[in-house]
Specification:
two-stranded antiparallel ribbon; 177 residues; 3 helices; mainly alpha; single chain; 2 domains; two-stranded antiparallel sheet
Length: 177
């Protein structure tokens, strides 16, 4: 800051950029006033530019705030979708566990059916072996009998004595004659 000469005994202070003009010899008070007005106008102009720049910065900040709000909203939506996906994944996992349990039960049931089928097959074979042991007698039209016996016999599975069976059949046949 510099002092400006004016009325004797009074001094004014002004800021740069025009202070150097006041130090020049031969400047009168009218010129000083004119220079002061120019300095005020220049200062006003700079203040207006500053206000303009501050307004532009305010608009830019408002845009940034709006952008960050949108980003926050997007993050919230993504987080919500992520939570929904996690819930859906848990449901799928529980469903897969349920399907796995049903599959294991079905496999156990199929194994039981296979064992039962094997048991039935053995019983059918045993029954077939036993039916081959029986002798069928039929009366003919002439009053005689014919005897048919099955040739296959499983001796390890039966306790029937063939000789007793044959002699009993012979006695029965003799009683008819």
């Amino acid at each position: 800051m510099k002092l400006i000469r004016g009325i004797p005994g009074r001094h004014r202070t002004i800021t740069d950029p025009f202070a150097h003009l006041c130090d020049e010899p031969g400047i009168d008070s009218q010129t000083e006033t004119s220079l002061a007005v120019k300095a005020i106008q220049e200062g006003t102009k700079q203040v207006e530019e500053g206000i303009h720049q501050a307004d532009a910065a305010g608009v830019a900040l408002d845009e940034l705030v709006a952008f960050f709000r949108q980003a926050t909203d997007m993050i919230t939506v993504v987080a919500s979708a992520n939570d929904q996906q996690a819930g859906t994944s848990e449901e799928i996992s529980r469903s897969i566990e349920g399907i796995s349990g049903v599959t294991q039960e079905t496999a156990a049931g199929l194994q039981q059916i296979a064992r039962s089928s094997e048991d039935l097959n053995r019983l059918a074979q045993d029954l077939e072996s036993l039916t081959q042991l029986f002798t069928i007698s039929a009366t003919t039209a002439h009053g005689g009998t014919s005897k048919e016996t099955c040739s296959r016999m499983n001796s390890s599975r039966t306790s029937i004595d063939l000789e007793e069976n044959e002699s009993a059949l012979l006695q029965e046949e003799a009683s008819f004659n």
